[in-house]
Amino acid sequence: MIKVKGLTKELIQEIQHSTENKSYRVAQHAVTTNGIFKAAQNIQAINENYFNFSVDIDDHLVTNQNHSGRCWMFACLNILRSHIETQYEIENFELSQNYLYFWDKLEKANYFYQQILATANKKLASRTVQYLLTTPQQDGGDWNLVLSLVEKYGLVPHYAMNETSCSIDSTELNTILNRKLRKDAYAIREMVDHHAKHCEVEMYIKHQLKIIYTILCTSLGTPPETFDFTFRTKTNTFEQYPNLTPLQFYQEYLTLDLTDYVAIINVPDESMPFHQLYQVQLSDNMIDGIPNYYVNVPIEQMKEFTIAQLKASEPVFFGCDVLKYFDRTKGIMSYDLYDFDALFDTTFTMPKGPRFVYRESLPTHAMVIGGVHIVNEQPIRWKVENSWGREIGDKGFFVMDDAWMSEFVYEVVIKKEFLSKDVLSVLEQEPTVLPFWNPMNPIAAKK
Question: Hey, which residues does 375 pair with through a beta bridge?
Answer without folding.
Answer: 378
